[in-house]
Design goal:
rod-shaped; single chain; 3 helices
Length: about 70
């Protein structure tokens, strides 16, 4: 016989909601860092990029790496 116990799920509901909003907040912080990094890289001149050993094709990858470090 199978039955449904609402006691355990009702107690964990607030923590699931908090985890959901924490996840959204993390994604927003990561997106902000991504945009900031990408925009700063776009302001560099070709000479600056050559000095750093970068090309414009690296901007997306570098921005993603920077955003993944946000916790």
């Amino acid at each position: 016989m199978t039955y449904f116990d609402t006691t355990a799920s009702a107690a964990s509901q607030p923590s699931r909601i908090a985890a959901f909003f924490d996840g959204i907040a993390l994604k927003m912080r990561q997106r902000k860092i991504y945009r900031q990094t990408y925009n700063e890289l776009c302001t560099l001149t070709s000479r600056d990029l050559a000095d750093l050993g970068l090309c414009r094709a690296d901007f997306r990858r570098l921005s993603i790496e920077a955003s993944e470090q946000v916790k």
